[in-house]
Specification:
The protein is α+β, with helices and mostly antiparallel strands. Helices cover about 40% and strands about 10% of the residues. The protein has helices at about 5-10, 45-50, 65-70, 75-90; strands at about 25-30, 40-45.
Amino acid sequence: MSTETILLQRCDSKCELCASDSHLSLYQVPPESADTPDKCVMICDTCRGQIDSPDTIDANHWRCLNDSMWSQVPAVQVMAWRQLTQLSSAGESWAN
């Protein structure tokens, strides 16, 4: 089974950060370069765009992290923590 298939099953075909069900793709959590399920997350285009271009962050979009930060998947936990840290540094007090 491919990594993408495993991730789609793991996430029930929803973004592992915001739960969107559209335009999902595999994202390797840096600094990892391995395409293994424990080193990757399945995210939507909106999350990917804001992760890749931090200057375009819509803080309200990331309020979804209140739920996804409790994921049992370490890669999802890492991504949630990174986004919350970035939002907190940008002055979003709710992200603390």
